[in-house]
Fold these 4 entries.
Entry 1:
Amino acid sequence: QVHLEESGGRYVQAGSSLRLSCAASGRSFSRDTVAWFRQPPGKEREFVAAIFRSYGRTYYGDSVKGRFTISRDNANNAVYLQMNNLKPEDAGVYYCATDSTIILSSIFNPQQYDYWGQGTQVIVSS
């Protein structure tokens, strides 16, 4: 079992930067795939970024490429999402998810992840 807790979400102006954190407890998730998803108000949960297993390869949704960076901090059992040049359409609840057995082709699918945090809200004003 692994427990995930997100933090760092808040209200910001468009063009600002934020760093979200996903802290894991219960066991190390340094070898697991960790992803960020977001759910804008009234919309489906969508893939934002993932870091695949211990290989360190990263993947991003098209709308955030070049602006967001996912990174892993094994010493602190955490994963971060650095978000730059935020836009109003980036607003939503951001969730961290992890899975130890997910295959690469499935990392974009939220239903493939076993563990989720409760989310942190990001609000971006124009």
Entry 2:
Amino acid sequence: QVQLVESGGGLVQAGGSLSVSCGTSRRTLSMYVVGWFRQAPGEEREFVAAVSRSGRSTTYADSVKGRFTISRDNAEDVVYLQMNSLKPEDTAVYYCAADQKSRLPSSASTRATQYDYWGQGTQVTVSA
């Protein structure tokens, strides 16, 4: 069982930046493709970004491409999501998830059902 823990959420003004991170209680995160999803109130959980085990391959939702960057530090066993040029519509609970079946992100990585483990989420609020 992998326990994922997100941190770094908070309140930021539109146009600002925020970084959230995902770690584990065990040093095993490098074994997984890791994705970030988000869920706003009353909305379905939606894919944001995913990164390969090595960190060399990434994929993004169109809504965040060019503004968000997913990266990982396998030495520290952490995956980051750097969010720039934030908009009020980015407001959501952000979740990280680990996929043990894949080595690289793919079209399947955009589906929540592809992932085996989930964190509890961290709130990101962007004020207008």
Entry 3:
Amino acid sequence: QVQLVESGGGLVQTGGSLRLSCAPSEGTFMNYYMGWFRQAPGKEREFVASSSRDDSNTNYADSVKGRFTISRDNAEKTVFLQMSSLKPEDTAVYYCAAGRALVRILAPTQTTRYDYWGQGTQVTVSS
């Protein structure tokens, strides 16, 4: 069973930046597409960003385009989410997810396409 370990969450002021990291505990990292999702209190989990297994294709939610960047270091077997110009509405628990990639360019946005999930890391943006 692949475990995903997230780090990098915390408290930041509006306009600030944070970088989240996620690394799977086992498996061949390049066999997975990777995604970030978030869930605010009282809301459903929503898509934030995703990256294909070779990092050639990325997708972003409209709400984070131009502010967040997903990247992966296949040598270090880590995926990152760089978050800038943070807003209070970005406050949520952020989850890393991985899915087995049979097609190189896949970078799904749906939660149902992911096989493994991390425990989540809290991001709080104060106004």
Entry 4:
Amino acid sequence: QVQLVESGGGLVQAGGSLRLSCAASDHTFSMHTMGWFRQAPGKERDLIAAISWSRDNTYYADSAKGRFTISRDNFKKTMYLQMNSLKPEDTAVYYCAADQRPYSGISTSRADYRYWGQGTQVTVSS
């Protein structure tokens, strides 16, 4: 079972940047497609970016395109989300998650992501 721990959240002004990290405890990290989700108060938890296990493919929600970059280092068992040009509407709890299917393509279905971190708060002030 993959255990995930996010870090890097915080308070930032609009237009600023943050880099989130997601560290995995298990060597099977490299077998799993990974995703970043976010959940604002009163809203659904939505996928904003994902990266395949091989790093060959990425997915971005429209809200993230051009501003966020997802990456991973399988040797370090860590995934990253570089967030630039942050907006107040980016305020949310950000979660990393691992697709339960080894060596799978990118899924945009939350149901396929079985392993979750505890979340890290990102607050963007205007």
